[in-house]
Design a protein that fits this description.
Elements (H helix, E strand, L loop, with lengths): L4 E2 L4 E2 L24 E8 L4 H12 L4 E7 L6 E7 L5 H11 L2 E2 L5
Antiparallel strand pairs: 1-2, 3-5, 3-6, 4-5
Keywords: Metal-binding
Protein name: Copper chaperone
GO molecular function, one term: metal ion binding
Amino acid sequence: MCATERNDLGLTDANSSCVCCATDAAPATSSVTAGPVSAEVLVDGMTCGHCVQSVTKELAGIDGVSGVDVKLNVGGSSTVTVTSTAPITADQINAAVAEAGYTVATSPA
């Protein structure tokens, strides 16, 4: 063991002249794979399966969207979960929902 090695963390002093610690180690690399991103919004005005289909179709048309799940709540705000391969903006979601003829109420807490 080198005299300049720190036992608490196992690190070597940068000023060490110890030959056994002076290695040309390759820098550590990591590969981060991003998973799906989900956004959840409340949509007002949906009353039936056709409404669900309309909202689903418009949201699925946004680039990167891989799934849309709608929990219909007749007479209230329906919960819509949009899953995508990359983040999408609230403006994109609002525009798609408006194109289907409905209104985004709020994001659930």
